[in-house]
Amino acid sequence: MSVDPNTPVLRNCIRLPLPEDELIEVTAKAKDYAIMHGAAMRSKSNFSEDSLNFAPFVLVPSSFPRKEFEKAVALQPIINRLMHNVAHDEEFITTTLAETIKVDEFTANLFNIYRKVLAHGFTQRTSLGMLRSDLMLESGCPELSPKALLWRGEAGEDGEATAAAAAAAGTGSGGGVGVGVCGGKAKSRARAKTMEEEEDEATVKRNVQLSRATVSGVSTATVASKDRKAAAYCCWKQVEINTIASGFGHLGPASKTVQSFVLRELGHADKLPNMPHNNALAGLCDGMVKAWDIYAKPQSVILFIIEDVSYNICDQRFHEFYIRENYPHIKVLRRTLTEVHREGKLGLNKELLLSGGLEVAVIYFRAGYEPGHYHSQDEWDARYLMETSLAIKCPSIQYHLAGTKKVQQALAQPAVLERFINDPEEMKAVGKIFTGLYSLDDNEAGNATYEMALRTPEKFVLKPQREGGGNNVYGVDIPDALKRMSRVERSAWILMDLIHPPLTKGYMVRPGAEMPPTIVDMVSELGIFGVVIGDADQIIHNYQAGHMLRTKLSTANEGGVAAGLGALDSPYLIDSDDEDEN
Ligand code: ADP
Ligand code: MG
To answer: How far, in Å, CA of 32 to CA of 314, rounded?
Structure first.
């Protein structure tokens, strides 16, 4: 993916580059520290159950605007409630997915389980939702102040602020930057400037002090910090909401541990208070234990459903170890879907029983979200068996379906949101987080989306109903992909405005990569965890539960860490009135 040269750059937590000697020493230490603190994974290229590699990580934490971080944290319980209500709205789920399941076999299989469960009645009415709402800052936001826009232009080739001034005036092409709906108000860039904006712009032009700095071969433009800070303070947009296998409950906090160590080693312990506390592991595991308490059988166990091979092993075992250390009376088991098919059966009261008569209270799915996890009908039968059992599922089938991209697209329409959120303020706040999401169903609206995607593909990402990364189609690849589909097949997909996050610059450390690392342009994606427990009538627990930050090269489309493109990171919170890095 190409990056707009006008993309703003967030200021760094500390001044980079580091002197080479110091960089080599601290990176070597940090790699060992990462392995020894579980910021690690199994190697895909050289797999062994007996060893771990450190997970790719960003050496020092990436900046993130404090105000936007706090907004995301505060919003999570509202998003939890929204998703809980959506999951329990049978009519909404059924109509929203009606077209999709005609052509998407995987979603249809999930939906069939849902249909059968509905027909027989839910054996277990309580669901455990462990959600993760993923978001990116949007630098192409139309509410971005003229100051920020000016700064966007300053990184341009000519060192002048003209491109940005043009953008602020609404005449810049923006390099194909799509303007999402921000603050609920979609504004066109092609609008007249207000007098206030013109004044602001003139002031900023006067204040701009461009100085070219070369950082490890990367040429950047820097400006007086007073002006460039504004660029960071835009809105953020939701990338997706995960309702199944929301990972990084351990790796999120572990990233903070590693980066805190690095900052201390580099003599920047004073920066640590700007790294927010992250209780993701405890928050999620306590959620499982609360569900276990609701099940209320002292001998019952918590079951993790796992892939045949778990590369991301630390992010599962640490959950298990946390539960065993803090609640030693609760046993944790791990089984694949295939093993559940072989071993599992229902008791007299539809209890899920594993061999030896072990009764399962809570099922935590870390697999089952992609077709490859179901090798045959056996695995689907196992999923159905669990679904009809008395065990509390994370997620239950209705929660799984509520997390599909199609449902996210439907929710982004204001009239739909009204159905699930009563409070007008809450509705406004949630409405703001959606960027443009468009149906590709076989109808008039879907056809209009199709035409729009063919006209300006660079503004969009095309998404199927899949999880786990690597399934989306980006920008210029979209027309070919769409043209290969029939009109009906398109309804398995949705179209979404591409979000344009600001850049950060830093060192990405990867197993097997050259030492010392070089400074690269990166973008980050913040995930906020939420736990919600309840049934169709009431919510018993609802809280925000920590966060995770994943960072990828700015040129990469996707940033899955397990997929090898992203790196562990954690937010370093910055304020608009901060002094420049030192
Ligand atoms: P998955 O369920 O496979 O994780 P996502 O919707 O999260 O699918 O997309 C995968 C990745 O693609 C995201 O983590 C993000 O890096 C990138 N991505 C997805 N949607 C957008 C978007 N609208 N704008 C920019 N990047 C996106
Ligand atoms: Mg994702």
So the answer is: 15
